[in-house]
Structure formats: C-alpha cells, structure tokens
Amino acid sequence: MSDRLTVRKTYKLYLGGAFPRSESGRTYEVHDTRGHFLANAAWASRKDGRDAVVAARAAFGKWSGATAYNRGQVLYRVAEVMEGRAAQFTEEVAAGEGLSTAKARAAVDAAIDRWVWYAGWTDKLAAVLGSTNPVAGPYFGFSVPEPTGVVAVLAPQRSSLLGLVSVLAPVLAAGNTAVVVSSKERPLPAITLGEVLATSDVPGGVVNLLTGDAAEIGPWLAEHADVDAIDLAGAPAPLAMELERSAAGTIKRVLRAATDEPDWTADPGLSRLRPFLETKSVWHPIGV
Amino acid sequence: MTSLFEYAPAPESRSIVDIRPSYGLFVDGEFVDGTGTPLKTVNPATEEVLSEVATGSEEDVDRAVRAARRAFVKTWGPMRPADRGKYLFRIARLLQERAREFAVLETLDNGKPIRESRDVDVPLAAAHFFYHAGWADKLEHAGLGPAPCPLGVAGQVIPWNFPLLMLAWKVAPALATGNTVVLKPAETTPLTALLFAEICQQADLPPGVVNIVTGAGETGRAVISHPDVDKVAFTGSTEVGRSIARAVAGTEKRLTLELGGKAANIVFDDAPIDQAVEGIVRGIFFNQGHVCCAGSRLLVQESVHDEVVASLQRRIGTLRVGDPMDKNTDLGAINSAEQLARIRELTAFGETEGATCWQPDGDLPDRGFWFKPTVFTDVSPAHRIARDEVFGPVLSVMTFRTPDEAVAKANNTTYGLSAGIWSEKGSRILKVTDQLRAGVVWANTFNEFDPTSPFGGYKQSGYGREGGRQGLAAYLRSDS
After folding, report:
1. Catalytic residues of B
2. pLDDT at B3 over 90
C-alpha cells in the first residue's frame, strides 16, 4: 500500500460539452450505502436545466443530421472509452449501490454491452421501422423514422450506471439530444459517464448530465416548450403523474415509468427507441 | 359568384337517404335511447334541422364500455383472426355498396361538396376497412414481435370535418388488431356514424364490438375518462388534445392524438406554376379548409410571388361556392355557426394586423354558413393568421429567398402535421423534405391520403400514426 495521498475528483455537471458547477453554487453530499462520505456532487438548479435545454436544442441539428453510420461510430467509440474506465465505474457502482466488486463489474460490463448494442441500431432503424407505401396513385410513397428532438430523461434512481445507460443510449441512437437528471443518491457514475462522452467524439450539447433532484428539476423540464419528450424512468409514482400532466401542456411524448424499477439486464427490444422516434411519410411524384 | 363559365344546376338527389326524425345510441348491437338531452343536427348549407340525435350520459357511456368489454372478452378477442378480417372485408364491401347513400348523407350533415364526399371521403373510408381487414391475420408480421396483443376497449373521439373517414381511420385498425370500440362522433356530424351502425348490423358484426355514443364534449369526456377504457384515440383541436393528455396522465391508458396544423406549402421558382396553383387551391380550399393538414401558409419564392398570386387569384375566381349537393360545387358550407364565427374572428385579426385581404367577387347564399375563399398577402410570420389554425378557407401568403429560409419559416410553428413542396428538382424535394419537421410531406401534390401511408404529427400536432404498418402499433401491446 502506497502512502501517497490521492488526488480526489471534483464532480461537476456536464453541460454543453463543458463541466461547470451548478450556477446556483449548491452541492450536496453523496454517501455510500453504509453512510460514508464519497464526494460532493453539484446540486443542479432550474436554471441549469434551462441551460441544458438550450445546449441540447443547439446540438440537435448536427447530431440528427449526421449520417446513421457516423452516429453509430461515435456511439461505439463511447463504449470503447467506457471499457477503459471500467475500473473507475466499478468502484463508483460498488460504493453507490452497495454491491460486491464482482457484481458491480458485471453491471458495468452489461452497461458497456448495452451501449454497443444501441450503437449498432443507428443504421437499422430506418429499415426496421420505415416502409415504402404502395399508395394508390402516381407517387413513390415512403415513411422514415426521425428523431423526436430534445428528450428530457429522468434516470433510474437505483441502477446508477446500467440503468442510466439503458435510458440514455436509445435516446441518442435514435438521433435525439438529451437532458438527463441523474439518480439523486447515486449520481457519481453519471458524471464519470460525462467524462467518457466528452472524450468520445460526441458533440458537446448532445448529452447534458445534471446531478440533483428529479423532483426539483423535472417539473421545469416537463413543461418546457423546447423539450419534445420526457422519459419518466426515475420519477416516483406521484411525481410521475404530475409530470405527465404538465407535459400534456405542450403535447410532449411521455415514456411512463414502470411501477417498480425494471430488471435492466433484460433485453429492451425497441421499447425505448420507438417512443422517441417520429414517422415522416413522403409522397414523391412519379412521372416523366 | 361571377365566373368565366356559367353552369346549369346539377344537384345530386337526396332521395337515396332516409333520415329518421330521431336516432338513439348504438350500444351492444342495437339502437337504444340516450339519457342525456338530445341534440339537433343541422344541414349547415340550409340551417334545416335534419334529425334529433341522442346524447350519451356518463351512464350511457358506461353501458357502452361494458358492452365493449364483454365483446372483447367473449367474442371479438377470442375470435380467429382470419374471421375478424372477414368481418372487416364485409364492412368495406357494404360501404362500397351503399357509397352513394353515405356520400349524400355526409354532404347534408357536414356541408362539404358532394364531389368530395363521393370521390374522397367514402371511397377512402372503404379503402381503410379493406386495407386493415387484410392485417387482421398477419399481425405477427407487424414488427411488434411474434404475438402482439390487443389492448382491450378503445375509446375514440372524432371530429366533424371528415365524419365517416375519421370513423374509418379509428375503427378499422382497432378492430383489425382485436380491440373493441366505443366511438363518440362529433356533435354537429353524427349521422354517417349512425348509418355505419346499420352497416355493422348488416355485416352481423357481434354485438358490442362497435358502440357509437353520440353527444357533445361531456360525452367525449366520459368516454376518455372511463376507467375501463384501455386506449384513447382522439382527432381534433390541440387545445382539447392537451386536456385529454392531462386526463389520461397517471393511468395505464395508451393515448394517440391527431391534432391541429398550420402547414407550409412551399413553392420554389422552378415549380410548374399552373400545377402548383392547382395544388395550392387543393391544399387550402379542399373541404372548405376544414382540414388539420391544410396548406394554410403559402411560402413562395420571391421571384415568382407576383406570378403565383395573380394566377392563384384568377383560379380562385373560377371556384364555385354554394350548394354542396350540386356536383359542380367546389366549396361548400362552413360546418357550423361557431366555426364561421371563429374564421371571421381570425380573419379580422389578419386585417387589423396589417395583412392585405383578397376575396373573389360574387354572392353567397342567403341561408346557411358561408365564407368566401380568402387570400392574405403581406403576411408576417408574427401575424395570428400565420400562426393560429383557422380551419377555414383562408390562405396566408409569405415569401422567401433561399431554401434555408423556406425551411426555417416552414418549421417556425408549434405544429408539425404536414407540408408541401413544389419544385421540378427531385434532389431539392428530398433535401427540403428531410429538413421539414412534419409528419407528412407532399411533393408536387397536396392533401393525398392512403391507408398504406402512415399519417400523424410532429410537435404539437400530436403523436401516434394512423395507417400503414406503423399505425397498428397504436392498438397493440408489443411483446418486444
């Protein structure tokens, strides 16, 4: 055992490709499951949420307009960089979720594999969800899936990395940009994931990670006119209903939370891709 | 209206329909009395009362939902999928056989030109049933896993602009996927839905599979908020859509919404102008502009603006506004006094905000609800007539210089239902199509519909699709 004093990390927000503190100056203590202090996390405010929406909107055109092949490559790169950070993720997941190192490592492995799985979806969605439409007229009719826009994601409260990846990766694979509120009690893997994203060719603003309380920031995101969809995965039942009602004001797409946090190791199929895709039907003339 | 051509009247006979003096609700396979205060349905072209129609109370809706649940559990759910398909094929054929009757009744109740109800509404309604009939025994190929399940009872609320066609868009996919239905038609246009109930009887559709509960907003609320409804589908205004989404929040109900629009119709300088003018007319004046996907914002490239507007005004001068039952009529009656008041209110804003209003010469009938085809030029994107859905024959014309500006202006709306592009250049059509945030894009055409083509909105025009393989997802529980 070395007697070297370690350099501890300051956990900040990941917003617009940078790592700012909360504009509110607030932080909160993060503890492991036994109550030992782990770190101070930035306690994101309503205004941080609004800044994140602005960053996500600004990034949407480039990210959604990139070729599906390019998006797939960038997302695969994220998995590569995650693999290199596996030890750090494992440590954070073990401490935050109270898992043995082996179980924490298994969750990290599953998260990396989930990311690879979604990276491979980018250039298959059009074939699987799109169509050519044999309309009764002189038109070439076709329908293509397109990203919904800016998606607010309330990440799962318990599964701090695998759960987070399971809700974030499909939003990105579909071509959306994201504003994520992390698990409140277990926020550290989210910020480490932000560091991975910042070094993985994911353009700044495509993912914005806020640590803090979904109950505080969620209502602002749910009613924000420039947020197109919201994933309520991490919202407890009474809050989820309130947010869904609020989201109705701007006809947001709402992905409801399961009554209990699901088993994130299960095959998600298309269940988290479909809600954040629109279908555009095109009628192109045929003639000479 | 003065016109280049004079036509002798060519009225369609109404003798083919037999409108009863009063109608009940269609619940569990038969017509029953409603317990609410009946409402009168009016021919908007003459203000003549056509019939008295029952209003469904909460208790009536409950009876209808219980009938739908029984049918779902006992007959329709367990039925062989191929047999469900055969019932839908029967319905499609019956609609075709009685097409003229439906067209006349639709025009009397709605005010739309007989040419449109005869050539568009009714044939498309039959086509929707025919298309979905074929899906009933092929759902394992719908891309929702090997054994997708129906949701149960669907509560459906539809608008007055395409009464029978919207019924078909709702009922056909719901039934094909094994669900049963409680449908609430619009209060001003209930008659073709009630005639459709007779079709269900003629087809020997098992009782309770389709239930039709007429009434106004209260009846609709009872349908969507009934605790035993599994799925809510609504077509109508964005405002009502919001209240429905709020009401459904926190429940297990699945929801699809097809709401308002403010579509851009973009004319580039290389467009075939005469063809574009026909498309502009079709885009905004089809069905008196009572179309959620109407091309109500005309974006014209600056260099051809004067030519397009002059040609458009000349063409509008030849449109015939009047008796919807006349086979030569292009624009029929506005559906209701309320809608006419709303159109007048918004067009008045257009003038006070500084846009230039143009209408053709000519007289309108003395009785009934009418509004002349109207074109606003000198419109700014901030004007209410450029932002709010008028849902009437009112076109707002704006200009652009570059394709980027056209796209920016087209997308500058909270809506995203449809858009049109006029250009001879295929590569430009596809590039601009890609950039438009709208659920349907028509190139060198407008207001085309087909059951194979998924229809629905981006942004505040709603969510979910109707038609095509994609439309089935709204009525099925995916197992993958």
Report:
1. 258, 292
2. no
Q: In what order do the strands lie in the sheet with B440-443?
A: A131-133, A139-147, A277-285, B440-443, B418-422, B264-267, B297-301, B394-400, B374-377, B356-358
Q: Do the beta carbons of residue A267 and residue A138 sit within 8 Å?
A: no
Question: Is the per-residue pLDDT at B77 higher than 50?
Answer: yes
pLDDT score of B6 more than 90: no
What is the C-alpha to C-alpha distance for residues A155 and A208, in angstroms, rounded to an integer? 12
Q: Which domain holds residue B217?
A: 22-259+459-477
**Residue A2: pLDDT band by 50, 70, 90 thresholds?**
confident
A179 Cα to chain B: minimum distance (Å): 18
Same domain (yes/no): B139, B76 = yes
Contact A133 B453 (CB under 8 A): yes
- B297-301 and B264-267 as β-strands: parallel, antiparallel, unpaired? parallel
* Best residue of B135, B422, B453 to probe chain A, by most A CBs closer than 10 Å: B453
DSSP B74: I
Mutate which of A284, A286, A288 to test chain B, going by most B C-beta atoms within 10 A? Answer: A284
Predicted confidence (pLDDT) per residue in A173-184, tens digit = 999 999 999 999
Pair B303, B433 in one domain: yes
**Count of alpha carbons within 13 Å of B50, Cβ hemisphere only?**
25
Phi/psi zone of residue B421: left (φ > 0), alpha (ψ -120 to 50 degrees), beta? beta
Q: How far is B116 from chain A (nearest CA, A)?
A: 17
A262 exposure class (CB count in 10 Å sphere: 0-12, 13-18, 19+): middle
Report ipTM (2 d.p.). Answer: 0.97
Q: Residues B459-473: what's their mean pLDDT?
A: 98
Q: A134 vs A61, B29, B337, B426, B434, CA distance in Å? A: 31, 35, 40, 19, 20
Compute CA B426 distance to the chain's CA centroid, rounded to the nearest angstrom: 29
Contact B304, B274 (CB under 8 A): no
Whether residue B453 is contained in a domain is answered as no
At B4 the pLDDT is 54
Per-residue pLDDT averaged across B374-383, rounded?
A: 97
Q: Could you report how far apart the first and last alpha carbons of chain B are, in Å?
A: 59
pLDDT number for residue B1? 45
Q: B28 with B207: CB under 8 angstroms?
A: yes
Instruction: Give residue B143's pLDDT.
Output: 94
- B149 in a domain, yes or no? yes
Those residues of chain A whose CB sits closer than 8 Å to some CB in chain B are 128-129, 131, 133-137, 139, 141, 143, 148-149, 225, 228, 240-241, 244-245, 247-251, 253-254, 269-271, 274, 278-285
CATH number at residue B325: 3.40.309.10
In a domain, B11, yes or no: no
Q: What percent of chain B has pLDDT over 70?
A: 99
Residue spans of alpha helices (H) in B178-322: 191-202, 217-225, 238-248, 273-285, 305-316
Taking the C-alpha atoms of residue B370 and residue B355, their distance in angstroms, rounded to an integer, is 22
pLDDT-based confidence at B7, cuts 50/70/90? confident
pLDDT for the residue B478: 84
Alpha-carbon gap: A275 to the closest alpha carbon of chain B (Å): 9
Q: Which helix (H) or strand (E) holds B421?
A: strand B418-422
- With a cut of 70, say whether residue A97 has pLDDT above it: yes
CB contact (8 A) between residue A281 and residue B468: yes
CB-CB neighbors (< 8 A) of B439 in chain A: 278-281
pLDDT at B157: 98
Domains of chain A: 27-285 (3.40.605.10)
Tell me which chain A residues have a C-beta less than 8 angstroms from the C-beta of B257: 251
Interface of B with A in 367-396 (CB under 8 A): none
Same domain flag for B295 and B344: yes
Q: Has residue B132 got a pLDDT over 90? A: yes
With respect to residue B7, please indicate whether it lies within any of the assigned structural domains. no
Q: What is the mean pLDDT of chain A?
A: 97
